[in-house]
Amino acid sequence: MSEFQKVNALTGMKDVLPPESAQWEALEAEVRDWLASYGYLNLRTPILEQTRLFSRGIGEVTDIVEKEMYSFVDPLNDERLTMRPEFTAGMVRSTIEHNFLYDRPRRVYAMGPVFRHEKPQRGRYRQFHQIDVEALGFAGPDVDAELIIMLGRLWRRLGLTDIRLELNSLGQADERAAHRTALIAYLEQHVDVLDEEARRRMYANPLRVLDTKNPVMQDMADQAPRLFDFLGEASLAHYRGLCARLDDAGIAYTFNARLVRGLDYYNLTVFEWVTDRLGAQGTVCGGGRYDGLIELLGGKPAPAVGFAIGVERLLDLCAQKDDIIHPVECQLYLIHQGEAGQRTAAQLAESLRDAGWRVLVHAGSSGFKSQFRRADASGAIAAIILGEDELASRCATVKWLRQQASSGQAQQESIPFDRLVTELQSRI
Ligand code: ATP
Ligand code: MG
Predict the structure, then answer these.
(1) Does 85 contact ligand 1 (Cβ within 6 A)?
(2) Model pTM greater than 0.70?
(3) CATH homologous superfamily of domain 332-427?
(4) Strand locations in 158-316 (E)
């Protein structure tokens, strides 16, 4: 035994092994197809960015920036860096850097890991994954509606039903400013029920106080002045425009005046898709409009709207509905005897792969019995046997391993090497 003390994965960061990884791949394939059907193209950005991108983009006084980011100083060049805690800031940085919106608005998406230092529990991890979708350069409620309708289609494609939409509007800067004054006055009157975090935030970011999950503060938050009541005609028209289009599409929603989202950059439309099936971590997807962010990060002003889906939570929901997929390693498993048998198997395997089969050749040399056990465990439809007799007659023995594939067929048969590909193609 080695003296090396074994290493485990970090708390809140999961390995995904087969067969579970097959559910991930199936979801990713479905999602790419769904995104393509709405014209979204893939934009890939680095996981590591300068810390100030997120503190500026997400906002200093937010859960993410105050306490959840994986940040460190790179000692090699003394830069403050952060593992992305979300996609939007990086996507926006990239479009500004490459002048990507110069001639037209763009629809882009990304999928991958994001990092937040939170207390791990079901649906809450330190490395988790998001499907992030951004419509950059679009101002109207038609695109807000398109994004939400698109999500409705994804849930349908995945067969998910117990998932509902909550909507709010956060208005524009001047409306928020007027509301803010009223909200601070209200919070000052209720300072006795505010927890420590709320007291700290009530001047810097009073809206965020309403986002509290502290049960003691719920009544206070429910009675607080509503931002929605401060909206002017243009903001209300945007909201009504969105609702009308959701009605057209038959998408149900509930208005939630307390929905403010955990990031600073939103204005007008904000929404969340929520389910009761995941315990406390019920938000599967959150998004909204962020018309000021591109300018805030140094770009030419342009409106934008987007959302992020939590992949772990989505997969948890899918798992409650679907049988799990058991991935197979191969369709054909080649069994052999002696060095000549192994070399023939390796060559035959290549021609079978040329014909599109997924093929495994048994590695190393072992007895037929243990090779058959591996063939069975691989999930293959057939084992192809290349023993001494087979080499001498240049005919492979094909043993059907799965009942359904062999219905009406002999359990075992002999097929000449040069007819193997065509014979197999006609059988399976
Ligand atoms: P929550 O209120 O659950 O903390 P959030 O508002 O911080 O969510 P967003 O920043 O909107 O979440 O991220 C989008 C989605 O990513 C969430 O709706 C959720 O599905 C998922 N998500 C957020 N944090 C985590 C996490 N720590 N682990 C797993 N999924 C997460
Ligand atoms: Mg959070």
Answers:
(1) no
(2) yes
(3) Anticodon-binding domain (3.40.50.800)
(4) 164-169, 254-255, 267-274, 283-289, 304-310
